[in-house]
Every structure is written in C-alpha cells, then in structure tokens.
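User: ok so my PI wants both of these folded by tonight, can you help

Assistant: No problem, let's get them done. Here's the first:
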Amino acid sequence: MKGLFYILFAMLVLAACASKVDSRGWCDINGSVSNTERDTYEGLKVYLTTPSTSPVLLSGDQSAQAGVIDSCEVSDGRFRFALVDSSKSRVLQLVLPAHQLDSFPSTLPVVIEHGVVSVRMGSSVSTGGTALNDKLQDFLLARSNLFDAVTTDTTGNALSRFAGEFSKLLLTTLNQNKDNVLGEYIYQQYHEKFKN
C-alpha cells in the first residue's frame, strides 16, 4: 500500500511540475503601443513580416499577403509573439497598420534571437532587451538624430553634412556587426548608399 501511495505522490509531483513548464518561446517579443489613446489600437493586428514586406499592403486584415509570418491582436495596449526554437537569428519587421490618428503605418525592425525582446510601437517605436536589439535601437536612434539635424539645419549644407555623417554611422555600425545578422540587415537595407 505504501508503494502505491509513493507512486501516486510521484505522479502528482510530476504533473504539477509539467504544468509549470515555461511557456515562453525561444524568442519572445513583448510589445506595447505608445499612443496615449490606447483604445484606438485595441483589437488591431500587429504583423510580423519579412523586412521587404510593404506595410501599405497590410492595411485591413490581409494576413494572406506574401511576407507575413505571423500576426496577433492588440489587447489592453499590449501584444506578444512567442517564436519557437530556431538555430538561426534573423531580422524581421513588425508592422502596425495606420489607424485613426496615424497617417502612416508604424514599422520596426526587430532581431529574432534567444531571449525576451521588448518593443514599443505607435506614435514612437523602440526595441531592446537582447544584445542585438539594443544595438539596433542605438543605430535607429543615431539615424533619427541625423535626420532631425538635417531638418533643423538652416545653413544650406545640411544634405552634404548628413551624407558624410550617415556614411560614417553606416560604416561604424557595419564594422561593429560584421559577424552577425544585424550587420547583414543594415547592409541589405542601405547597400545603395555605398555605390557612390
């Protein structure tokens, strides 16, 4: 009788442990929308796509479009993607289609790598939480700061200054990431800047 009791107890312990197995994926993307009027995004889909997918094609519910990998709905101002184990990191794109207060879709590149990626979309965008997503965010902020400097420059030589500084930013970022998917992504997105 004691033997049967121990077997039943062991089965209960195993069942309890099995129910607490981590449900996270190899790469979790935890997102939030950054608009003060969160309700405008409730129920909308956020798409995980290839970087070459046009966000304009994703207006409405057209998840059958080529390049869409997955989608999920915004609920309480949040969304989540749990990607299963993958041996290869890559860069994908998140797309939140334009809606009500937005003139354009909100897009954000994101590095798919092991860990938890935190993203914000809507009126502002950001990515972080893993090493390569932190580096990607640094690049995106530096690029944005350069664009801002061009739009506020009144000296008349903003474009030539921007071209030089942007080339430096690209070369620095590529050299720092030459052996990872972030370097590959930046080269693919901006390789035409190197033809001159």
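One down. Here's the second:
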Amino acid sequence: MGTTSSHRRGAAGVLAVTAVALTMASACASPQAGEAVAAPGPPPSSSRTAPPSTSSAPEHVGKATKPLTDAGTALKYGQEAVVENPLGSKIYTIGIVPVKVEKGSFEELRSAGIKIEEKTSAGRVPYYLTYKMVNRMEGAVESMTTPNRFSVLDKANKSGTKLLVIGLGGPKLSSCPSGIPPRGWSTDQEHTTCEIHMLPEGAEPGSLHYRLDTGRAPLTWTP
C-alpha cells in the first residue's frame, strides 16, 4: 500500500491501516485537524475466515422488530433489507435502504480537503453511495458504527473499490455527507450516510451488493 504524496509524519501509518482494518485507525498516527487522507480499501469478501475465539458468542442488542431479509434477495433502490450488523461482542439489527449512486469527481474531493494520491485516482471515477440505516431493535442504541459491506458493481458485474477516508475534525463533503448514527438512536429512527466507491473510467454503475456472512449469497439492489 502506498502512502500519500505528503511525507508528513504519520500519514503512511494511517493509510497502511486503512487498507487492512478501518477500526485500527485510532491506534495509529492521524491527519492534522482539518485534513483527511484517502486510500483504496480491500474489496468486501465472503471468503474471509474468522480466527478461532475462546470468548463467548456475540450478544444481540435488543429484540429485533422485523425479520431478517433472506440471503440472495434482489431488491430495488429504496427497498429495505433487514440485516445483522456484528460489532465486537454485540450484534445489532438494522435496516439498510440504498437511496442513490451518483457520479462525483476527484477535483471535488480534493477541494473538500481530502488528500488522494495520483495513483489512487488514475483511471478511476468516484461514485457516491447514499443509503439509510434504520434501527430495527427495541430500545435506543448508544453507540454503533456503519457497516462496511457494500460494493458497487459496474454493468459488466465487476466490483469497484471503496475509498476509505480518515480525518479527525476533517472537512465535510456536502454531496456525500457521512457519519455514524447519533447517540440514543431510537427504534425505527432513520440515519442517512454516504460512502465513496471508485469504478474504472468508462464504466457505469450496475448493481449494488451487500456482503453477508461467509457462504451466504449477498443482497443485491438495482436502480
């Protein structure tokens, strides 16, 4: 994994960790306030094998208010799928509703203060995936991150690359606002967020996949 063109101390560490596991970023050096860095992340994979664990099984947070959507279900944008979102020792039940995938530009991202290497952007075009999350559990949630399981596929059914952006106090991109659900996220409350994905130049978005657990077919959305 390459580093940003800037050789400021800590940037290389941020990018290296970004490509492996987003949750480890806080343990590494971070960008300066008002800055953000970006790097291509690993494609979601259904073939990952979890290491053996001696800890107890993850605990479901609250009783689900809707049944889970069957693996392999095909949906249209705007239709909700109910999934489990495992985070550490807890499992959350949420609804996910893709809203739109819109073409962006690296010029816009750089203007927002996001530092992107030329080799990261070369031959690619960014697309903004906007989707809603819905709390489908009884009771409020105090803290939860967004899932990292979406892939944007082109019309040839080839998966794009997600662009991971990290920055403490960094700028907000008005055309693709992102963030985690608020504290006290209540039952049936919606939260809208956005991700940046990249496709090769000349390719157009086709379908959207959401990776489930190993061995289970992904959920699919089309416009």
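The two ends are 33 Å apart (CA to CA). The CA atoms of residues 133 and 170 lie 23 Å apart. Good luck tonight!
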